[in-house]
C-alpha cells in the first residue's frame, strides 16, 4: 500500500493528520474507532529508536517499543511510542489505555533521539515537553555518575513542562517549567493518573521529599535489580 492509498483508504477508517520522518506507511495500522483522526508523533522500529545509544547490549536486549494512543493538548488523538523494559510493557499498555479513556492530555510521546551529546535529556532542553521512558544516562536531578532508572527502561517522565523536578534549591527542571495543579496535564497527588500507576506498583516522584519529581514514575523489576547488583559487585 502506498502513502497515497493509505490516506485515501476507507478500510482503515482513519485519517493521518500529521506524520514524522521515517514512517513506513505500509506498516500503519491503528486500532482506533472508525473515523478517528490520528496525529502520528512517532512510528519507528525498536532498532531505529535505539540507533546511537551508548547502552550495552545487556540492557538493550530487554527493551521493548510500546505503541500508545493518547489525547494531546490539541484535543486530537495522537499515536506515539515509548521504550520500556520488557517486564513493564504490559503495565504501560494498560496504563495508557486508561490515560486515553480519561483523556488526560499528554503533549507527545516519542523515544529520545541519541544523535545528541551524551547526557542530554528532555529535562535540559528548553521547551521540550516530550514524555519518554528509556534513556541511557546518569540521574539528572543531582550530580552523580549513578545511572538513572531510565537507563534500564523502568522509569517514564510525563509532560515535563507541567510536571517539573524541583531541586533542593528550588530550581525547576526543565528550564521554563512551572508546577501549577490547576493547569491541564499536571500530575497531582491523589489524581487518577497517580492512582493508576500505583495500582500497578509504580512509584511517583511527586511523593519524594527532595527532589520532588512530578513528571517521574518508576518500577523496579526483578531482572533489573539482579543486573544492578551484579554490576556493583564487579
**Most strands sheet:** 4 strands, mixed
User: So how many helices?
Assistant: 6
Give average pLDDT, whole number. Answer: 83
Category by helix and strand content: alpha/beta
Write a concise keyword list for the protein shown above.
234 residues, alpha/beta, 4-stranded mixed β-sheet, 3-stranded antiparallel β-sheet, 12 strands, globular, disordered N terminus
Would you mind describing this structure in some detail?
It is globular and about 50 Å long. The strands form four sheets. It has a four-stranded mixed beta sheet with strand order 1-2-4-3, covered by helices on one side. The longest helix has 14 residues, at 89-102. It has helices at residues 3-8, 46-49, 57-60, 89-102, 192-199, 222-233, and strands at residues 14-18, 36-40, 63-71, 77-85, 108-109, 130-131, 155-157, 165-166, 172-173, 203-204, 212-213, 216-218. It has 234 residues and is α/β, with parallel strands linked by helices.
List the helices and strands and how they pair.
Elements lengths: L2 H6 L5 E5 L17 E5 L5 H4 L7 H4 L2 E9 L5 E9 L3 H14 L5 E2 L20 E2 L23 E3 L7 E2 L5 E2 L18 H8 L3 E2 L7 E2 L2 E3 L3 H12 L1
Parallel strand pairs: 1-2, 2-4, 5-6
Antiparallel strand pairs: 3-4, 7-12, 8-9, 8-11, 10-12
Summarize the structure.
The chain has 234 residues and is α/β, with parallel strands linked by helices. It has helices spanning 3-8, 46-49, 57-60, 89-102, 192-199, 222-233, and strands spanning 14-18, 36-40, 63-71, 77-85, 108-109, 130-131, 155-157, 165-166, 172-173, 203-204, 212-213, 216-218. The protein is globular and about 50 Å long.
Amino acid at each position: 500500500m502506498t502513502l497515497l492509498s493509505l490516506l485515501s483508504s476507507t478500510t482503515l477508517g482513519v485519517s493521518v493528520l500529521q506524520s514524522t520522518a521515517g514512517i513506513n506507511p505500509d506498516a500503519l495500522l491503528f486500532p482506533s474507532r472508525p473515523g478517528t483522526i490520528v496525529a502520528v508523533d512517532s512510528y519507528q522500529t525498536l532498532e531505529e529508536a535505539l540507533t546511537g545509544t551508548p547502552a550495552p547490549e545487556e540492557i538493550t536486549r530487554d527493551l521493548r517499543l510500546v505503541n500508545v494512543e493518547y489525547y494531546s493538548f490539541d484535543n486530537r488523538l495522537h499515536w506515539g511510542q515509548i521504550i520500556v523494559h520488557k517486564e513493564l510493557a504490559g503495565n504501560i499498555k494498560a496504563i495508557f489505555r486508561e490515560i486515553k479513556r480519561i483523556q488526560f492530555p499528554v503533549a507527545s510521546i516519542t523515544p529520545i533521539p541519541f544523535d545528541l551529546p551524551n547526557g542530554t535529556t528532555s529535562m535540559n532542553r528548553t521547551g521540550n515537553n516530550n514524555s519518554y521512558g528509556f534513556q541511557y544516562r546518569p540521574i539528572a536531578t543531582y550530580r552523580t555518575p549513578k545511572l538513572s532508572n531510565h537507563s534500564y527502561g523502568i522509569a517514564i517522565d510525563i509532560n515535563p513542562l507541567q510536571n517539573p523536578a524541583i531541586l533542593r534549591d528550588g530550581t525547576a527542571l526543565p528550564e521554563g517549567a512551572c508546577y501549577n495543579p490547576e493547569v491541564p496535564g499536571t500530575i497531582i497527588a491523589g489524581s487518577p493518573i497517580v492512582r493508576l500507576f500505583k495500582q500497578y506498583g509504580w512509584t511517583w516522584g511527586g511523593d519524594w521529599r527532595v527532589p520532588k519529581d512530578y513528571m517521574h514514575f518508576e518500577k523496579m523489576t526483578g531482572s533489573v535489580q539482579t543486573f544492578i547488583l551484579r554490576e556493583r559487585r564487579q
